[in-house]
């Protein structure tokens, strides 16, 4: 995939931080507002795909290799399963929410009913949101990046 | 009309009749059904999981195994796509 014109690249560079911030906000506030790891990860991955379309696959793969993306995806998966096993160790069952009830890390129980949201709540749910969000971001972006780069080389090799 | 078209017409009429009858037997739109599970989740989400977002608390706490399966599906898809397209890159 070759790069597009300078107008498209400039507009992409302006719009990219806003899409990125929105997606990361959806991930970080997954336990308070609609959304979560999967949805916010899809937003951030589409922002990265916008960069890929505007700047071309060669430029993008010079900046970040797909092997590094695979490493990050494995880190996300291991963090998610590791949190589930911590529930087995510290609590009673697999996927137990063992952080609810303490005072320092995501442990505060909110007031029942509608009201102001506190980000320091919900136990392991924000941590699992971060893990799944990382996994979805690098997973979807790795799929798009590898497809674009491989088909570019394939076409050029045929000519 | 050939035999094949006739068979297709008969088959699709049967399918249409089945769908129409199942549409008539459907639950009426907008009428709430009695269910213990959603009442339990709505009443106890904030005390048990601490999350204000009930959907996320169901996805990551009450039904964590389902999310684990989803993550596994995504991981397998990414691994398969990278494997196939690396092969195309080397050709």
Question: What does this entry look like structurally?
Answer:
The complex is a heterodimer of chains A (159) and B (91). Chain A has 159 residues and is an all-alpha fold. Chain A has one domain. Helices cover 68% and strands 0% of the residues of chain A. In chain A, helix 1 runs antiparallel to helix 2. The radius of gyration of chain A is 19 Å and the shape is elongated. The two termini of chain A are 15 Å apart. In chain A, 42% of the residues are buried. Chain B has 91 residues and is mostly helical. Chain B is 78% helix and 0% strand. Chain B contains 4 helices and no strands. The N and C termini of chain B lie far apart (50 Å). The model of chain B has no long low-confidence stretch (mean pLDDT 83). Classes of the chains: A mainly alpha (159), B mainly alpha (91). At the A-B interface, helix 4 and helix 5 of A face helix 2, helix 3 and helix 4 of B.
> What is the N-to-C order of secondary-structure elements of chain B (H for helix, E for strand)?
HHHH
Provide the helix percentage of chain A: 55-70%
Structural class of chain A: mainly alpha
| Radius of gyration of chain B, taken over Cα atoms and rounded to an integer in Å | 24 Å
Number of separate helices of chain A: 5
Give the strand tally of chain B.
Answer: 0
The coarse silhouette of chain B is flat
Return the average pLDDT of chain A rounded to an integer.
Answer: 83
Low-confidence stretches of chain A: none
Strand percentage of chain B lies at under 5%
* Uncertain spans of chain B: none
> Gap between N and C termini of chain B, in Å?
50 Å
Categorize the overall geometry of chain A: elongated
**DSSP, total strands of chain A:** 0
Distance between the termini of chain A: 15 Å
- Could you tell me which chain pair has the largest interface and how many residues each side has? A-B, 48 and 31 residues
Please estimate the helix content of chain B.
over 70%
Indicate the proportion of strand residues of chain A.
under 5%
Largest sheet of chain A: none
Major sheet of chain B: size, sense and barrel closure? none
Domain tally of chain B: 1
């Amino acid at each position: 995939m070759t790069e597009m014109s300078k107008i498209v690249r400039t507009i992409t560079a302006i719009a990219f931080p806003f899409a990125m911030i929105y997606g990361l906000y959806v991930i970080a506030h997954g336990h308070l507002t609609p959304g979560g790891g999967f949805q916010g990860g899809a937003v951030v991955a589409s922002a990265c795909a916008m960069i890929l379309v505007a700047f071309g696959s060669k430029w993008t793969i010079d900046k970040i290799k797909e092997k590094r993306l695979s490493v990050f995806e494995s880190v996300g998966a291991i963090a998610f399963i590791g949190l589930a096993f911590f529930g087995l160790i510290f609590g009673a069952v697999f996927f137990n929410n063992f952080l609810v009830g303490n005072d320092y890390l995501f442990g505060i129980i909110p007031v029942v009913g509608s009201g102001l949201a506190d980000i320091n709540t919900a136990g392991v749910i924000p941590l699992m949101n971060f893990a799944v969000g990382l996994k979805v971001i690098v997973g979807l972006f790795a799929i798009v990046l590898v497809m674009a780069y491989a088909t570019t080389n394939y076409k050029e090799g045929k000519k | 009309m050939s035999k094949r078209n006739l068979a297709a017409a008969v088959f699709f009429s049967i399918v249409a009749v089945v769908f129409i009858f199942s549409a008539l037997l459907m639950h009426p739109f907008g009428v709430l059904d009695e269910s213990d599970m959603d009442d339990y989740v709505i009443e106890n989400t904030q005390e048990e999981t601490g999350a204000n977002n009930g959907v996320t608390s169901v996805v990551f706490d009450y039904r964590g195994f389902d999310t684990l399966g989803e993550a596994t599906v995504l991981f397998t898809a990414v691994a398969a796509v990278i494997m196939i397209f690396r092969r195309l890159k080397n050709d």
